[in-house]
């Protein structure tokens, strides 16, 4: 049906038609409306994440934020889960998405902590070597070899 529906016509508690903006009445017993799933992402827009329209069979069904399967967005350190990244996901899918995103986020945090710990260790070793008056590039081996047996 083309045109904007402005009213539902009801007679004796039963739908009898829809009235269009033009004033035309179209008789109907049933009306089906397609919901539009919109990502509530206003706070994320301030972080430079823009929702994108999602289509299904050529129809815009809503919007979502782009993210990889683990929930990571194009903005480093920002993760999303649930309906904000999958507008068609129901409650179970949203919960599963939250679990997957939490696991990926935890793995990312562990990797960052490990990288920082490695950097700190290397820095401390470098300082200790420098304070001891050793120059790693000029070190010679102090290992002694045993005499050869004949």
- Oligomer type: single chain
In CATH, the homologous superfamily of the largest domain goes by the name FAD/NAD(P)-binding domain
Strand composition percent: 15-25%
Q: What number of domains?
A: 2
Biggest sheet, open or closed, and with what strands and sense? 3 strands, antiparallel
Give the N-to-C terminal Cα separation: 103 Å
CATH topology of the largest domain: FAD/NAD(P)-binding domain
Topology order in helix (H) and strand (E) letters: EEEHEEH
Q: Do you know the CATH architecture of the largest domain? A: 3-Layer(bba) Sandwich
CATH top level assignment of the largest domain: Alpha Beta
Q: Give me the count of strands.
A: 5
Helix content: 25-40%
Q: How would you describe this structure to a colleague?
A:
The protein is α+β, with helices and mostly antiparallel strands. It has two domains: 1-33, no CATH class; 35-132, FAD/NAD(P)-binding domain (3-Layer(bba) Sandwich), CATH 3.50.50.60. The chain is 30% helix and 19% strand. The chain contains two helices and five strands; from the N terminus they run E-E-E-H-E-E-H. The chain has helices spanning 42-45, 91-131, and strands spanning 5-11, 14-20, 25-27, 52-56, 59-64. Strands 1-2-3 form a three-stranded antiparallel sheet, with no helix packed on it. A two-stranded antiparallel sheet has the order 4-5. A hairpin with a 2-residue loop joins strand 1 and strand 2 (14-20). The model has no long low-confidence stretch (mean pLDDT 86).
């Amino acid at each position: 049906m083309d045109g904007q529906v402005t009213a539902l016509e009801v007679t004796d508690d039963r739908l009898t038609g829809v009235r269009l903006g033009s004033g035309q009445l179209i008789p109907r017993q049933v009306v089906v409306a397609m919901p539009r799933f919109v990502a509530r992402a206003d706070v994320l827009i301030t972080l430079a994440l823009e929702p994108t329209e999602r289509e299904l069979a050529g129809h815009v069904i809503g919007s979502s934020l782009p993210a990889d399967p683990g929930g990571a967005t194009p903005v480093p350190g920002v993760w999303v889960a649930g309906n904000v990244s999958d507008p068609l996901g129901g409650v179970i899918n949203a919960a599963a998405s939250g679990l997957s995103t939490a696991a990926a986020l935890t793995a990312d945090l562990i990797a960052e902590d490990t990288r920082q710990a490695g950097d700190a260790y290397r820095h401390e070793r470098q300082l200790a070597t420098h304070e001891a008056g050793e120059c790693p590039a000029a070190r010679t081996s102090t290992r002694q070899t045993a005499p050869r047996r004949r």
